[in-house]
C-alpha cells in the first residue's frame, strides 16, 4: 500500500450523492463490507479500519436519479490488501447474489458492480509491482478475462468478515468531456504523470510509479455536459499531498494555468475542466 500514503499524492476519500441514505448505508455495510464511522440524517462516513473515512455518502435535498451521458463518476476503486481477500469477497458476492463484471488488467485483478443509485464500484487487488511491465514511462495494462477458478483457490467460503483494516481507496475513474484539456489540467495543474493513454478516449495518471491513481475517459461522449447538481453521482474527491507546502505549490500551478481554486472554511478545492470537484488536502 506504499502507493497510497505520503509522500505520494493519492486519492484518500470519495464523496458520492445518493437518493436514499438508509438504502445506501445498508448496501455499503452488508454488501461491500464497510463500517459506519459517523452518521447524520442525510450522510454517513464509511470506514474499513474504524478510524479513517475513505467513502462518504450524502443525500442532497431534492436528490435526483443519476444522469446518463454526463461527466462525473465512472467508478471508484476499493483496493484490498491481498488476493485472498479478493477471493473471499467473491464467495461473499455469490452468497448475497451480487452480479459482477470482472477483468484481469495484468497489474491487478478487478471486480465491477454498481450501488443502488448506479454509482460504479471496483473492488480489486494489485499484483506485486515487481511483476508490472513498464515501457519507459508507460505501464502495460489490458482488459483480459479474470480467471475465477484460479482466484477462488486462494479463498474460503464464509471467510469474508467485511473489508480488511488495510483496505484503502485505490483510485477513481472519471468521465470527462475531452482528453487534451484534462491531460493539461491533471499534469500541469495537479502534478500527475501520464502512465497510459488510449488516444482521445482514455488517460491513466499516477504519482510514484503506480499503475493509476486516476483514470479519465470520454466514453460518455466528447463534450459531455456535467450532471445536475443534485443528481446521484460524484460530489467530490479528495487528493492528499505530502504537506501544506505541496498543496501551496499545487495551488500556484493551478492558478498559473487559469484553473479555479477556492479556499474557504479551511478547505482548498479546485474544479477540473469537466466540472469534477477536487479537494486538496495534506
UniProtKB/TrEMBL annotation:
The lineage of its organism: Bacteria, Bacillati, Bacillota, Bacilli, Bacillales. CDD domains: VOC_BsCatE_like_C (cd16359). InterPro entries: Glyas_Bleomycin-R_OHBP_Dase (IPR029068), Glyas_Fos-R_dOase_dom (IPR004360), Glyoxalase_1_CS (IPR018146), VOC_core (IPR037523). This is VOC family protein. Signal peptide: none annotated. SUPFAM superfamilies: Glyoxalase/Bleomycin resistance protein/Dihydroxybiphenyl dioxygenase (SSF54593). Pfam families: Glyoxalase. Residues 10-126, 168-282 form the VOC domain. Keywords: Metal-binding.
